[in-house]
Design brief:
single chain, 156 residues, alpha/beta, 5-stranded mixed β-sheet, 5 strands, 44% helix, 19% strand, globular
């Protein structure tokens, strides 16, 4: 198993944790120097939050790192990060984002790339299947979340 696949498996565990809590199955881990320093999962529903996306949760859970730490990090996320999460990656100078898959939902990958963030898409079917099953079983919840932000980036 490659390092990217290992860390994506850990992000998938976070996505499953969110699903088990009744939330949207998106997970993330923040890795520095080959070690997971924080984990996060989508908590929009569980916490009635407007900002606790998996990526934001993982960055928050890392605590207040310094610049030298952030530039050694890679963020692994099961789905393509939205503009808010991509903005946090850019703000904190995280140089690389590894995305599980981007066929079910396309985030702000161009924003990341235009700001010199390396973007790697694994096309991991496990991420796709987990999210599509949630969407199928909970279409009302997902449609409500998309409507809140006027999201037009969903891929059918």
């Amino acid at each position: 198993m490659t390092q990217d696949n290992y860390f994506m498996t850990e992000a998938i565990k976070e996505a499953q944790k969110s699903l088990d809590q009744g939330g949207i199955p998106i997970g993330a881990v923040l890795v520095k120097d080959g070690e997971i320093i924080s984990r996060g999962h989508n908590r929009l529903i569980q916490n009635d939050s407007v900002i606790l996306h998996a990526e934001m949760d993982a960055i928050e859970n890392a605590g207040r790192l310094n610049y030298e730490d952030y530039i050694k990090c890679t963020l692994y996320t099961t789905l393509s990060p939205c503009p808010m999460c991509s903005g946090a990656v850019i703000l904190y100078n995280i140089p690389k984002v590894v995305i599980g898959e981007n066929t079910t939902l396309m985030g702000a990958e161009n924003l990341l790339e235009c700001n010199d963030v390396e973007v790697v898409v694994l096309n991991d079917i496990r991420c796709r299947d987990l999210f599509l099953k949630f969407k199928c079983d909970n279409c009302g919840i997902w449609d409500e979340e998309l409507a809140k932000v006027g999201n037009t980036t969903e891929v059918k």
